[in-house]
Structure formats: structure tokens, C-alpha cells
Design brief:
229 residues
Amino acid sequence: MKKAVVLLSGGLDSSTAAYIAKFDKCQVFPISFLYGQRHTYELICAERIAKSLGVEIKKVTVGLKGLAESSLTGSSEIPVEGVQKDKIPSTWVPQRNSIFLALAFAYAESVDADFIYAGMNAIDYSGYPDCRPEFLQAIEKALNLASARFVEKGKGFGIATPLVKMTKADIIKRGMSLGVPYELTWSCYQGPNELKQACGVCDSCRLRLKGFAEAGLTDPLKYVEVQND
């Protein structure tokens, strides 16, 4: 059986990628990161998704707060104006995916994995430089050059991004076909309120709600601004 390290944030995309790795008959090794983000509820969700897959999750602490300027790691307001094309949003965390992938490669080397699965989605997150296919191709090559297994045996690790060309609606449809428990996932940048509701107005909530609507489905999460039936 092939082995796959999966970047699992607890969000919709990464959870779908994890289930795709399982569908691809991989032994799944999830990894999540505490990097100074606004809330840690997503890590609880990542643990729940890992449990639903019947596996343990590796939790890693990375100190990006105070180092990488972003509205996700700082005190600035989370934008609610919607995703703007040709503009990098304030929710982008500089080099986050570069760092996460490097650590995932280290974990993959230690468990002798074959792939690193990640939920990057270049269509919905076209403003994020580290979600672009050209970045992913380049960093895969660079990180393999730093791998002992690759240098000694010529056997590299592949970065698998099965969602990279999919719309959010397509991702949700794919996930539903695989049985992804989306009620266990979390997407809201703000974190849950005391009623475990998402804000419904941040970019991530907007994309998620739009995806479920376009897929003809109801989001199982509850929202402050957009109440489910």
C-alpha cells in the first residue's frame, strides 16, 4: 500500500483531499499546524476528520505570528468584501505553504511515504501565490533535491493536489461521493462564536456557501449572517 502524508487543516478542501488519498488506496498520515492563527478550532476539526478516517494526526507548532504579516495571524480585520481578482488578499500568510510542505516532506521521509496530498485550489484561491501549479511543481523539485531518499535512491516524493483545477462546487460534489463528513469541517476565518456558528461573511465562508449552493446542497454548518434551513 502506498503511503501519503496529508496536509489537514480541518477545512473543506484539505478534508476532501484526505478522503481522496484514502480512496486512492493510500495509508494516510495527516499533519496539521498550529502557526499562530486567529483560532485553533480548525485543529479540533482536523483531529475529528483524522478520527473519521481511523488514523492519528501529527500536530506541529510553527511560529509564524509576528513573523509573517497576515490578517490571519495579526490583529487587522478579516476582509468581508469578497475575493478580488488580481489582488493578493490580506488573509494570505507569506510562505505558509512553503513551510508546511517542507515540514510535510520531512515527515514523509521519516515514515517513508510516497506522496504529500494537499488541498490547494488555484481557482478559488487564484490570489494566493503559493496555490499556483507552477509553485507546486517548483517546490516539489526543490524539496526532493533536499531529500536523502532521493539523493541515495533516486526515489522522490510527489505532491498530489487533486483539487487544484476544481471549482468549490466540484470539490463538494466529489467529497460527498466519498462520504466526507463536512459537518466536522470548519472554514470560517473568524472561528466559531459561543453557538458554534460561522460568521457567514468572510471570504472563506462566502466561497464555501457559494460552493454548496452551486452544488445544489445545503451546508451542514450554522452561520450567523446566513442561516441554514
